[in-house]
Design goal:
Elements: E1 4-7, H1 15-31, E2 35-38, H2 45-53, E3 56-59, E4 70-73, H3 80-88, E5 92-95, H4 99-113, E6 117-121, H5 127-133, E7 140-143, H6 146-151, E8 160-164, H7 170-183, H8 197-209, E9 215-219, H9 225-236, E10 240-244, E11 260-265, H10 271-282, E12 288-291
Parallel strand pairs: 1-11, 1-12, 2-3, 2-4, 4-5, 6-7, 6-8, 9-10, 9-11
Helix pairs in contact: 4-5, 8-9
């Protein structure tokens, strides 16, 4: 029977997600609906539905957007071909790519231009990986596992560099990079980790939490890479963990044995969902609900220049 719920800290929105969501909100204020968004602005179904209700239209490709319309590019980044298509279609593109993802793109382009084979550590098919590989498709190879790293063959073992997806497991990535260094002693890499501060901090918070709990619930959507990594971190420590979209995803059978439940949320999950899950436990008699400790993050990113205006842009008269 659950007696206590401990909240991980930090949890929830990161600066890149806040910037991306606010970019869509400001675009709607400035231009009015519809504002088109290429793919999910962030990987959270609740956020997407809320923005849809306010006039955002999510599309799978820039080719699906009417000529001349406003298009917001999602936080995960896109390949250069997307910008070219947007220009060809005369779209008013607003780039909401997280600056930390932009950093990875810049690194990949620089290494490729210097003649390196660029090893991208990441998950096949993830939007961030697709966008990064589009920067230099002839020079970038994807590595997902240590086994991939050990089996990798490159044209010149003296000219190899690596970059990583920003939302990976810190521990798994360290193992893969170590394997790459074993294969390629002159391996080049970024001066600072590509895994973003929020991913790192949320995984660290889970590691602190799992020693105190019998079960961990992670709020996040199924396609959220960083949320899935939080589940994996807990399970690697021997603690049962489940990914839930919201309180409706809780299976009460999970709660038959645990006395202390941990709760966290991925970097694209709003804090309102955490409050809803806490209320779900309160409705079942759990009153001891609070953070293990409180950590504040003070990272912020400036909005794209196109939405830094405060005056709504009115359509010109026909």
């Amino acid at each position: 029977m659950v007696k206590r719920v401990l909240l991980a800290s930090p949890r929830g929105y990161c600066a890149g997600v806040e910037r991306a969501i606010e970019t869509v909100e400001r675009a709607l204020e400035l231009h009015g609906p519809p504002v088109y968004v290429r793919r999910q602005i962030v990987h959270n179904s609740h956020v997407v539905r809320d923005l849809e209700a306010r006039g955002a239209v999510f599309v799978s490709s820039e080719e699906d957007v009417p000529r001349g319309a406003v298009l917001v590019l999602a936080a995960h980044g896109v390949a250069p071909s997307v910008y070219l298509n947007a220009e060809r279609l005369e779209l008013r593109a607003i780039d909401a790519t997280c600056p930390l993802v932009t950093k990875v793109h810049s690194e990949a382009k620089r290494y490729a231009a210097e003649g390196h084979t660029v090893v991208l550590v990441g998950h096949a098919g993830h939007e961030e990986v697709v966008g990064t590989m589009g920067e230099a498709p002839d020079s970038i190879v994807l590595v997902e596992t240590v086994e991939d790293a050990l089996a990798l063959e490159v044209p010149d073992e003296e000219r190899v560099a690596y970059v990583t997806q920003t939302t990976l497991s810190v521990d798994d990535t360290a193992e893969i990079v170590a394997a790459l260094r074993g294969r390629f002693p002159r391996l080049h890499g970024p001066r600072t980790d590509d895994i973003c501060y929020a991913t790192t901090n949320r995984q660290r918070a889970v590691k602190e939490l799992v020693g105190e709990v019998d079960l961990l619930l992670v709020i996040g959507s199924r396609n959220s890479s960083n949320s899935n990594r939080l589940v994996e971190v807990a399970r690697a420590a021997g603690v049962a963990s489940h990914l839930i979209d919201d309180e409706t995803g809780i299976d009460e059978r999970w709660l038959d044995s645990p006395e202390t439940v941990g709760l966290t949320s991925g970097a694209s999950a709003p804090e309102s969902l955490v409050a809803r899950v806490c209320d779900w436990f309160r409705a079942r008699g759990v009153t001891d609900i609070g953070p293990l400790r409180t950590v504040y993050e003070d990272v912020t990113f400036r909005l794209p220049v196109q939405v830094q205006l405060t005056r709504r842009v009115r359509p010109s008269a026909a």
